[in-house]
Write a structure and sequence with these properties.
Distance between the termini: 54 Å
Structural class: mainly alpha
Radius of gyration: 17 Å
Helix content: 55-70%
Shape: globular
Number of strands: 3
Length: about 160
């Protein structure tokens, strides 16, 4: 294990601590502009897509699994989460969002999935060549991103309901 950590590039540790800080910030109630609610989900969607693409390329199965998982979890998140928890100020055009540990958990899930996959690829482990590995990893990347997207859609929906 220490060999793996020793060969991990410095930027990976910087990214890890940046995500931790960002996730911790998300755990506190905050006020944001409506136009910014999609920034973090968009970044996580791009990060997860790149994670999938960097290992598997663009085979139709990988893209389909990632997309279906993303859309399915975004739709479920939109249905299950309540925009009533998010308040919108028409005068300031800002949302008040309650703190949540969910974004930190999702960021860490994407990060560690990408890290484990990176280690498996770097060590040329046979599991990387198995179809089930592609199915699980692409589905996870899409699902994690879908939850992020669903949360931002709930926030956006709260701003539209108030108008």
């Amino acid at each position: 294990m220490s060999e793996i950590i020793q060969h991990t590039p410095t930027w990976v540790f910087i990214l890890f601590f940046a995500l931790l800080a960002l996730g911790f910030k998300q755990s506190k109630p905050r006020v944001v502009r409506v136009s910014t609610v999609f920034i973090l989900p968009a970044a996580m969607v791009i990060f997860s897509f790149f994670g999938m693409y960097s290992v598997f390329g663009m085979p139709l199965l990988a893209l389909a699994l990632w997309t279906v998982s993303l859309l399915l979890l975004a739709a479920i998140g939109l249905k299950l989460q309540s925009p009533a928890l998010v308040t919108y100020s028409k005068t300031d055009q800002q949302l008040t969002i309650p703190g949540s540990w969910v974004p930190l958990c999702l960021m860490m899930a994407i990060f560690f999935t990408k890290y484990v996959v990176g280690v498996a690829v770097a060590r040329d482990l046979p599991i990387v060549q198995q179809q089930m590995f592609l199915v699980v990893i692409c589905s996870l990347y899409g699902a994690f991103s879908g939850v992020f997207l669903g949360r931002s859609l709930v926030m956006f929906q709260a701003s539209r309901q108030a108008v």
